[in-house]
């Protein structure tokens, strides 16, 4: 290509195109370097013990053999009851979260509440709720109300406020301004604009968020029992502590089944609301 | 009916979009505001019902200065000013009937509106207006199922639901095809005449303005540079409003 015909050597042909500027190339190289360093550093921190790693397949086979045959007889009494309790914790917790999260979500939406300090305060509440894991909330409520499903329900609710409130607030902020402008022009009050202008626009998002959170909460409430906050996790904890692996197996299968069913139900319902 | 005095608006301090606009709108008739894009037509019309806050000046509407109102006073003034929008601004997921009834939100409490408990008289008038705008039988259709022309008819009906003393229209036909544009303008003109409501319309289509307006106001650079009957709007005047002349022929 070095011997390009002279006719082609016009100023247009001489122009060169590059995807990245040299500063961008340098930045990209730096990002790769940092990523590699981070992976190396984390591998060193987790301290893999080679003997245990080599031993793992054997241990898995051992565990599975202890789980077999599954103790199905254990299901009808304790496990079933605990499973229903888990679903109740998830559902009640989600419901409570929806009630508590909506006002906070509204306060976080700048187009509805045009006051930056209030928006920031509401966002702080939402972030606090989300930054604490369900298990930590559960530990807190077990300390206050004692062990049992009440602590679990509140843990689920308080963890969900942040999630639901954040997503609802964002849905409100993304609502089309046009219809709201029209209602304002007709002399509608703030409340009327909320119920007649915003709510129809965010309704599908709201129900979709609620269903999604319920789905997550079914999974989360299954482990809350590990810290004494009720539900099937308590049964799992008991079986684990007593090394009743055949019972552990039936509990794990029950959790798996209920999570799959919840997923299917939510997917079907979401199709209808959207 | 409406008098604008020394109305000015700057979004950025020192860069006025509207400069000392003075305008008198009579109690009836159609006034079209024409002018190049970005000259403040939309801002002017939105200042009248305070969707945009004017920087300076008075908006005398029915004896009160709308520019000085706030809270419930402003909402009560807005109830008497209907507005039609370029993008229709319907609540898409509500039905045609609900969109019409939303024109009554200034009168009905939020709680009653939420339960759709509107006064029977409002519902009766909504049905009558659907007949007027040619959407008989569309009451329970969702707004997002309608065509552009049909949506604008709903938008007009919603504005008239307010029983307004003044109707504002911001580029009501700019999103529509030429045939539908004429139909919508005809509808607006019919309503303005039969109900004796003065109408103030922003438009960019000069021919449409000449055809339907009783009075044309030309704006350029945030100022009124022409004000008179459509018959006076010759090439010389259009040159003053839009600048240049190559486009005229």
Name its key features.
heterodimer; A: 274 residues; mainly alpha; MetI-like fold; 2 domains; 0% strand; extended; B: 249 residues; alpha/beta; Rossmann fold; six-stranded mixed sheet; four-stranded antiparallel sheet; 9 helices; 35% helix
How does this model look, in words?
The complex is a heterodimer of chains A (274) and B (249). Chain A is an all-alpha fold and 274 residues long. Chain A is built from eleven helices and no strands. Chain A folds into two domains: 35 residues; 201 residues, MetI-like (MetI-like fold), CATH 1.10.3720. The relative contact order of chain A is 0.12. In chain B, the strands form two sheets. Chain B has a six-stranded mixed sheet, with helices on both faces. In chain B, strand 4 and strand 5 form a beta hairpin. The mean pLDDT of chain B is 94. Helix content of chain B is 35%, strand content 24%. Chains A and B meet through helix 8 and helix 9 of A and helix 2, strand 6, helix 4 and helix 6 of B.
């Amino acid at each position: 290509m070095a011997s390009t015909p002279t006719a082609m050597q016009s100023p247009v042909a001489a122009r060169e195109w590059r995807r990245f500027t040299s500063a961008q190339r340098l930045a990209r190289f730096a990002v790769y370097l940092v990523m590699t360093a981070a992976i190396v550093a984390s591998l060193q921190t987790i301290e893999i013990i080679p003997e245990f790693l080599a031993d793992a397949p054997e241990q898995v086979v051992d565990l599975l053999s202890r789980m077999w045959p599954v103790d199905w007889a254990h299901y009808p009494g304790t496990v079933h009851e605990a499973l229903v309790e888990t679903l109740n914790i998830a559902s009640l917790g989600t419901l409570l979260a929806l009630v508590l999260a909506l006002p906070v979500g509204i306060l976080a939406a700048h187009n509805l509440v045009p006051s930056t300090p209030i928006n920031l305060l509401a966002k702080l509440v939402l972030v606090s709720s989300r930054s604490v894991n369900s298990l930590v909330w559960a530990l807190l409520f077990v300390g206050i109300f004692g062990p049992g499903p009440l602590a679990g329900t509140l843990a689920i609710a308080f963890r969900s406020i942040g999630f639901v409130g954040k997503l609802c607030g964002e849905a409100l902020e993304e609502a089309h301004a046009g219809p709201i402008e029209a209602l304002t022009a007709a002399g509608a009050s703030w409340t009327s604009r909320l119920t007649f202008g915003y709510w129809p626009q965010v309704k599908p998002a709201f129900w979709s968020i609620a269903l999604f959170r319920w789905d997550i909460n079914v999974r989360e409430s299954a482990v809350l029992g590990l810290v004494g906050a009720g539900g099937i996790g308590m049964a799992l904890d008991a079986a684990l502590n007593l090394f009743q692996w055949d019972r552990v197996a039936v509990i794990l299968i029950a959790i798996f089944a209920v999570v799959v069913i919840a997923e299917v139900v939510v997917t079907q319902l979401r199709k209808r609301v959207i | 009916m409406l008098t604008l005095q020394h109305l000015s608006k700057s979004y950025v301090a020192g860069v006025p979009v509207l400069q000392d606009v003075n305008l008198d709108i009579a109690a009836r008739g159609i006034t079209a505001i024409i002018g190049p894009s970005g000259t403040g037509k939309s801002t002017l019309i939105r200042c009248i019902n305070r969707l945009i806050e004017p920087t300076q000046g008075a908006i005398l509407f029915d004896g009160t200065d709308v520019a000085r109102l706030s809270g419930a006073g402003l909402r009560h003034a807005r109830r008497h000013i209907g507005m039609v929008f370029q993008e229709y601004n319907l609540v898409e997921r509500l039905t045609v009937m609900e969109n019409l009834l939303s024109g009554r939100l200034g009168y009905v409490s939020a709680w009653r509106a939420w339960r759709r408990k509107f006064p029977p008289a409002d519902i009766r008038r909504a049905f009558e207006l659907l007949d007027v705008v040619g959407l008989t039988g569309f009451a329970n259709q969702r707004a997002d199922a309608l065509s552009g022309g049909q949506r604008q008819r709903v938008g007009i009906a919603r504005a008239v639901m307010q029983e307004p003393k003044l109707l504002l229209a911001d580029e009501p036909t700019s999103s529509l095809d030429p045939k539908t544009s004429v139909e919508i303008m005809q509808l607006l003109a019919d309503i303005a005449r039969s109900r004796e409501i003065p109408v103030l319309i922003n438009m960019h289509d000069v021919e449409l303005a000449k055809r339907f307006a009783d009075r044309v106001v030309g704006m350029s650079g945030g100022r009124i540079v022409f004000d008179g009957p459509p018959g006076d709007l010759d090439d010389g005047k259009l040159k003053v409003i839009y600048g240049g002349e190559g486009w005229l022929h």
